[in-house]
Amino acid sequence: MEVQIKDNKIFAPLKDKWLVLKPEEKVRQEYICRLVNSYGFDLNQMEQEKQVNNSQRGQGRSMADIVIYKNEADKLASRSPVIVVECKAEHITIREEDYFQGYNYASWAGADFFVTTNLKETRIFKVIKGHVPKRLDEVVNIPTAQEVKDEKKINELLRKTKAFTRDEFSKLLFKCHNIIRNNDKLSPEAAFDEISKILFIKIRYERKNSDNQIFSLDAFKADKESYEKYKPKDGKDFYQFLFEQTKEDFRDDDLFEPTEIIRIRENSFEAIVKELEIYNLSTTSDDVKGIAFEEFLGKTFRGELGQFFTPRTIVDFMVEVLDPKEGEAICDPCCGSGGFLIKAFEYVRSKIEREIQREKEKIKQEYYTETYEKLSEAEKRKVDEKVNNFFWQLNEELNINNEKSRIRELSYDCIFGTDANPRMGRTAKMNMIMHGDGHGGVHHNDGLLNVNGIFENRFDVIITNPPFGARVEKSLKITEADKYTDQERIRKYQHRYGQDYDRALQQVNNNIGKPLLSLYKLGKMSALTEVLFIERCLNLLKPGGRMGIVLPEGVLNNSNLQKVRDFVESKAKILLIVSIPQDVFMASGATVKPSLLFFKKFTEEEALQYATIENTAIRETNERYFDQIREIQEKLTQRGKEAPTQKEKKQLKTTLKGIETKKEGEIKAIIKEKFNYEIAIAEVEKAGISTTGAKIENELEPLSKDFREYATENQLWGKIVRRVKYDIEEGDIYRTQTTYSGVGEPEIFYSKKSV
C-alpha cells in the first residue's frame, strides 16, 4: 500500500475520498500505510478521526486521528479499540503535554496502546484505563494484526518498557567509533573525524531521498553497483565519490578541506553504514539524535581528545538568565561543540512553539462553543475542517523549510558562532544539525577576528565560555592567511549586511603584519585570552546588548587586573555574578574555579550619561588638586640654589604619584555614586553535577527563576524585541509583527488559496 498524492490532494482510504494535502494529513496517511504494510492490519479494522468522549459529562470530547480494533466486528459494534494514534506534522516537535493529551483520548476510548508520531519520532505508551499517571510508561512496540487477537501477547508487549532511544543511539556512535579505532588503527581524533564524514554522507543521502529511504548497506551496495558500470578506469571508489558529493553540498559550510578524503578502508565504511542503518537522520527526533550526539561528544572529547566542555547545567542556567527572544541575534565567538548556541536555539524555538499553541487554543475557544455541540455531525465536520485548516496554517510557522516561517528565520538569521579549532567548528555544525539546525551561522575561525556574519555592534546576546589561562603572544601577527578572500561570499554578505560588513573586513585587511594584541585596548594591559574575549564580546554587542561569560573566579577582582575591571565598567553594567563550585567543571576536565558573569552593554543614553559623569568627575577632581599639583611641579622645575635635592625630588615625585592615585580613587567614587546600580551576587554549593559527572541537586534552577523575575520587574534586558499577532479573516490567517521600528503591515500568512 502506498500513499496517493495528486493535484495538492491526498487520498484517505479510511474515508474513501481525496482530502486537502496538509503536513499532518500526510503523516496520518503515511502511518496508515505503515500499519498495513508493516503490521498487517486491514483497513476494515481501522477508523480515521474517530470521536472519543470522556465518560464524565462535560469533561471532554475529541477526535482521535487513527483507531485500530481487534477486528472489523469490534469496529462495527463500537467496542473499545486496541490502539489509538495521534499524528503531528513532521516539522512539529512533539512535546510532553501532547503525550498526555493523546493519552487522555486513548484512555477515554478504552485502548491498550497509545501511539504518537510525526514520522520523525514515534513513541508508544501503555494505557491504564481510567487513570492518567504522572509518568507515562513507554513500551517497545504495538502488536501486529495477528498479535492483536492474542490477549497473552498483548500483555507481554505491555510489560516490555522501552529504554530511551537516545541512549541506544549514543551507544551505537561509540560502537562505530571503536570500529574505526580497531580496524584502521586511527587515533581518537582521527576516528572522530571519519565518523563525522560518514554521518554527513548519511544526512545528505536521507535529506535528499523523497521516500524517507535510509542510507543502508543494501542501498549503498545497489548504488555502488550502478556506479561501477560507468566508472572510468581512474575513477574514485564509490564511497569516496559519495564523500565528494557531500563536500560539494556542504561547501558553503566549510566543513572539510577541498582535498580531504575518507581515510578508512571500505570494509570499515560498510560496517559503520550497517550499524547506523536503523536510524534515519532526516526523520529521527531532534531531541533523540541531538542529545545522543551530545553525550557521545562529551564522553569522547573529554575522555580522549582533551577538550573542555561546558556542563549542561551551566549552559541551561546561563541561557535562561539571558532569556534570548525571538528576532534577537545570538553569538558565541568560541563556540566549541555548540552547546550554548543549541540551547539558545531550542529556548527560542520553544517560545515560538508555545505561542503557536496558544493561538490554536484561542481558535478552539472561538469555534468549539455550546453552539458547536448543537450542530449536526455534518456541520461539525465543516467546523472541524475549518479549524484544522487554521492549525495547518499556523503549523507552517514551525516549518524550517518554509522561507516565511519564524523557525526558519531563527535558524538562518539569528544563530552565529565560531571556533578556532577546525574540528570543533565542524563538530558544532553537526551537533546543531542533530538538534534541529541553526548551523549555517557557525564557522571555523579565530574568535578574536571578524568573519562572515560575526562582527562588531551586531548582536543582542553573547554567551560564551572562552579559553582560560592561555596567552596571546606579542609575536602573533595578523597575516594574509587571515584575510577572507571568497569573493562570491563577500558579495553575498555585502548584500546582506551592507557597509557594516565592509567595515568588518577592514579589521583584518587594514592590519596585516600588526600584532593581534594591537586590535584590543585590553591587549596593552593583559595578553590572557579570557581578558581579550571580554573586550571582544563587548565589541560584538549592540548598545544595550547582554552577555553571559564563564571566567576564572576573581578575574575582575584581581588587583593585577584592576584596569580590566575599570575598562569593563566604562562600557557595561555588571548585573549578576554567580560563584559556582569547582566540582561542576572538574567533571569536564577543568581545574580552575570559575564564576558566571552577566553584563549589559551601555545603551547610547547610558554611554552618554557615563561619559558626562566621568568628565565632570575628572574636571572637578583636577580642579580640587590643581593648586597642590602645580606647587609640586613648580618645585620640581626650579633651578639653581632653589632647586630641590635629589632626596627632595624623590619625595616630591612620590607625593605627586600619591595625589594621582588619590585622584583616581575619588573619580571612581564619584562615578560609582552618580552612576549607581545594583549588582546581584550569588553563590551556589550544588550546581546539578558532581566531580564524577553524576547528577545532584541543582541550586541554579531556582536562582535562574528568581533572576528572570527580577530582570523582568526591573526591565534589565530591555523591551521585547518582537511581538507577533494573528488575525483570522475570510478563512486566512493574517500575521502582524511589531518591532522597535513600529507595527508592520498585516500579511496573509499561508492563504487557503495556496493549499
Brief synopsis:
The chain is α/β, with parallel strands linked by helices.
Overall helicity: 40-55%
Alpha carbon gap, first and last residue = 25 Å
Query: Kindly state the mean pLDDT as a whole number?
Result: 83
Number of strands: 22
Q: Give a short account of the largest sheet.
A: 8 strands, mixed
Number of helices: 24
Structural class: alpha/beta
Overall geometric form: globular
Q: How is the largest sheet built, in terms of strand order?
A: 11-10-9-12-13-15-14-16
Give an overview in words.
The protein is an alpha/beta fold and 755 residues long. Among the domains are: 5-162, tt1808, chain A (Alpha-Beta Complex), CATH 3.90.1570.30; 166-305; 609-678; 722-754. Helix content is 46%, strand content 16%. It is built from 24 helices and 22 strands. The protein is globular. Residues 55-60, 303-307 and 751-755 have low confidence and may be disordered.
